[in-house]
Write a structure and sequence with these properties.
One of its GO terms (biological process) is translation. The chain has 77 residues and is mostly helical. It has a domain of 44 residues. Helices cover 61% and strands 0% of the residues.
Length: 77
C-alpha cells in the first residue's frame, strides 16, 4: 500500500490573498502584560515626572496670561 500524503500548502496562499492579508489593528493603549518589569517601573516614574513638569508648565502659562492681562489693563489707563 502506498504512503498517504502528510502535508501540502497548495492554494493556501491564494486563499489568504483573496481578501488581502491585513496587519493586526493597533489599539490606542497596548497591553503591558508580559513586559519587562524593570522597564515598566521606569515607565511609571517617567510618567509621574512628565505629569509634574506638565503641571509646572501650566502654572507658568497661567502666570504669563495674568501678566499679559494686567499689563493691558495698566496700559489702557
Amino acid at each position: 500500500m502506498a504512503k498517504s500524503k502528510n502535508h501540502t500548502a497548495h492554494n493556501q496562499s491564494f486563499k489568504a490573498h483573496k481578501n488581502g492579508i491585513k496587519k493586526p489593528k493597533r489599539h490606542r493603549q497596548t497591553s503591558t502584560k508580559g513586559m519587562d518589569p524593570k522597564f515598566l517601573r521606569n515607565l511609571r516614574y517617567s510618567r509621574k515626572g512628565n505629569k509634574k513638569s506638565g503641571e509646572a508648565a501650566a502654572a507658568a502659562a497661567m502666570v504669563v496670561v495674568r501678566v499679559r492681562v494686567l499689563g493691558t489693563e495698566l496700559n489702557s489707563d
